[in-house]
Amino acid sequence: MRVSSFKCFTAKLFKALLILTVAITIWLHLQPAQAFDKMYPPPLSFSNAQLMGKDFSGQYLASSEFSNANLVQANFSNADLHGAIFSHATMNGANLHGADLTNGMADLVNFADADLTDAVLVDVILLRTAFYHTKIEGADFTNAILDGLQVKQLCAIASGVNSKTGVATRDSLGCK
């Protein structure tokens, strides 16, 4: 009987150690992911939202979606908007001073009276976007996809050099 109870105890101990090992392994694998999520939270969706005058200044909003959002007078100054989507958003009077929209999309957006000074718009899709009375001094449009009419309109007012990329606005637009 002693051998039998020892085998039972050993089997239970082995099972408990196996469960503990699996639990610790899972816990260790989750730690880097949780740390990564704290540094880089998952993308946010603000589609169809009414965000007039909302302050997003300096925030990390990479890959966030603002499709069809009302962003009139919203403040995105110095925000990280890498890969963000603003498709068909209304951004009249929005402040994007120093914002980084690299690899983003802002098609069918109204940037009337918006401030894009010193913004980084590298590799951004900007087709059929309105730029009436928009401030673009120091904005970097390198490799941005724009309609020919937009380029002509922006070249008429382009000036300055982007403080982050060192690229002149006129050069980034291919102005002659």
Automatic annotation (TrEMBL):
A Pfam family reported for this protein in Swiss-Prot or TrEMBL: Pentapeptide
Residues spanning the membrane: none
Cross-referenced Gene3D superfamilies: E3 ubiquitin-protein ligase SopA
SUPFAM superfamilies, per database record: Pentapeptide repeat-like
PANTHER family tied to this protein: THYLAKOID LUMENAL 15 KDA PROTEIN 1, CHLOROPLASTIC (PTHR47200:SF2)
Protein name from the UniProt record: Pentapeptide repeat-containing protein
Source organism: Merismopedia glauca CCAP 1448/3
